[in-house]
Amino acid sequence: MELVKRYIAAVQRELPQAKQQEIGRELKANIMDQIDALTEQKGQLNEDDISTLLVNMGHPRQVAWQFVPPQPLIQTSSMPLYKNTLFMVLGILFLLQTVETTTAWLSSFDMGLIGFLHGLASGFIESACFGFTAITLAFVFTGSTRLDEQASRCNNWQPKDLPKAEPGWQYIDMSDIFTDLATYLFLLLVIWYPLWFIAESQAASSSLLSDNARLILQWASPVIVLGLVNSLWQLRVRIWSKALLIANILLNLTAMLIVLYLANSSPLLGVTPEQWQGVFSHAQVEHSAMVSLFIIALFPAWEVLRDSLRLRKL
Length: 314
Hints:
single chain, mainly alpha, 3 domains, membrane
């Protein structure tokens, strides 16, 4: 019976101290009943028979979990609210980091595209780690107080209070919303950042876009602002409706036409041939920018096609 004692002791080590003796006695009685039943069938049992019986019962930790299930850090009833809060806070942190990094990139003489991406990623990861830790700790400390409220809501509900059964595609992914918001903020900063600097700094800084391209984008700024409003509308309702789909189609169609018009305008970049001497010719740089804009135009074109098909389904 030494194996039985060791098995029960191993189970008790996985249990809260207040329940170890009670559950240990119950488990021992259960094991002895199985041994008695097996003895009646096979006669005297040896150590290997008892070992096989204990193996069939399961690992001591798994048996302990059957008596006292492990409690997660975040209560199951609080998990939907936790995930929604986490995505919302991380999305806002991503927007703030986009604004900060873009401003630093536009005002710096040494930060290139790689530096911009590195600054955006490292800054967001640092903020996200802090935000994730703060939100998790807040839910851990307040989870027990909300548990009774969640239980009362689960007890007092009516089927007529449930939301309408919508197709899966109608639910708007929060990551898409915040990606669009970050893109629109980035474009506004790139277009209008010269207005934020004094004349000396503006003259000394290298411009990313040509005056012609910047003028076109400045005229297109109302469309970008409408895109911000549209994304905030999506964030509020989180479900595609006919009005929202029509607004998104018109917005993406306008964006596609602006990008195509910009691709056919020259010059696009505010660089001089001397800056690329020995690397690329000025014509190659302009051609690459034009091809990139045509590729970018495919994204709103795809969204126009996608939302048109969705609109037909509604």
